[in-house]
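Troubleshooting: if your tokenizer reports a length mismatch, compare against these two reference records.
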Amino acid sequence: MLGLILTTSALEGGSVATALPLLAYAAGASAMLFAVRVLVGRTGRRLPAALRAAVPWAGATTRLAGAAVLAAVVLIAAGWDTSLAAAFPGTGLERLEKGWLERVRPGSQPAADAAPEAARLPQAVLVAAPEAPPLPVLGTMPSLSGASGWLQSPPLAPADLRGKVVLIDFWTFGCVNCQRALPSVRDWAKRYRGDGLVVVGVHAPEFAFERDRANVERAVRRMGLDFPIAIDNDFAVWKAWSNQHWPTLYLVDAQGRVRWRHIGEGAYAETEQAIRQLLDEAKRSVPAGS
């Protein structure tokens, strides 16, 4: 929650609207700490002793939890967490999360995403049907200028991409939702590159360590990303696109018009269908057996 509040404040600037959530968070945390201090002050050592007697296995559980935290620190420090997340799509975890929420609150979750089933179907099933309704026009492709640097490509502008179907992916390497979505983005980049699809990643950092170019380069190598990536440390591209979430995918047609947007994980089959539909509109070949 604190990270969300600070990120919102950084993106929207200082104001009463951004200061109030931070003050509310500080007040709530202070109240809880004060309550604990008063309770311990009145009971002395009796409360901790009573808790230990009531839960005799608490000590062993605490040690195991500490060991798990240390193991997680080593995993993250070595960069293995992003490698694992990039190697395996998050559709399975997403199904588990949605299933658990559906058990807790029946009817609260939308229908399960069709991506896992679609992945097992013949590729011909995913070819855009001629009778498919056209995708809406959401606006003209905004600028990509303002990025503080580029990886694996010179700076790109909308004019450089005219005639191509473009997938824009706003992401940051420390975001677990981005890590789960990237395997699909990486696969689309390879599968449809010859058909006219250009994937452009926009790396907009959430935390300070994600602003370091060397850290971004290491994450890109670990995840096996070979498409152009704009380093948007100043959120210039983010603001030009009026983006608000990690990850967010946009599809731009060959005429430079935004035709698709998806926020968060999921909708992989629908996004691939939209890619094929726009490639078909651009009069490019999409082999059914590719």
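Reference record two:
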Amino acid sequence: MSTKLYDGLRLTAHAPDLFELTRMISKRMREVFRELAVPIIAKNVARVVDDTEIRGREMGGHLHDYLVYRARKLWVDEQTGLDHRPAFHDPLRFSIVFGEVDDDHGTRRLAYPFAGNRAYTDALMGLEADGRPIFVDYHYQNQTDQPEEIRDEEWKRRRDDWDRLLNADDRGADGTFAHLPGWQLPDSIDGVFDAVLLGYDDIDLNAHCVVEDRMRRALKQAVAPDLNLDEATGINRVLARNRRIERAVEHHLSTADGAAMPRPAPLPGTQDLDIAISELPPVYEPPAGDVARIIAIYRKQQLAGN
């Protein structure tokens, strides 16, 4: 049977009791959640601010006439639209389960995190008690040879430990960790905006959404319609065409003309996101001269076969 427990961890002798450990994990994972969530909020606010089509899109409900709710709806629709199991795709999800194994070698406390972002696991590995690590790697998989730095006896012990947890002599054990105690980050896809924006000081979204990225997106949107692009067949041709557009935009931005281009207006502060869509400043539009220069660069690359 295939076993892939890439994120398995073992608690060290320095780890506190489960109650205190859960408290530490809860505090740190909420911090990581906020660090990951703020750029998502900034990205979706920028999508509304910078896109005429999104501003005018019918989303249903009067709440979506306001910036924060329209940005939130974009995010929720994007995630839940990927699959009928939205939690499976939630990039901000985190949960962890704990188990204990006793044998002649002693007692080992194990943990297995389920994370939508590697930052959660890295934060777990960074937790310390009295300056010493609480978690150490205890992964196991039987798809390839064991790592060279792990002794045969240690590797077999990992295999046996995880097998005992997954196939415990318990009616609740069914080859999964569902029967084990654990902790789950309560914040969800739907709650990202509320969890971050409520109860916090003003957050500078511009620090998490680079203005040059907003310019690149606006330039690509402005350039494409004027290129009279024929319908490309095959994913490779489409990707090659998109890369050529991106290279043309990057080349222009690296020139003196590109550096002199006007920038989009800053995003509003998080305490000002309740502004109505109709009250937002006009959508940023790149100057026609800059768009024309990028089109010329694109066509030159195309002729050169780049």
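Descriptive notes for reference record two:
- The chain has eleven helices and nine strands.
- Strands lie at 4-5, 9-11, 94-103, 106-115, 128-129, 132-133, 135-137, 140-141, 182-184.
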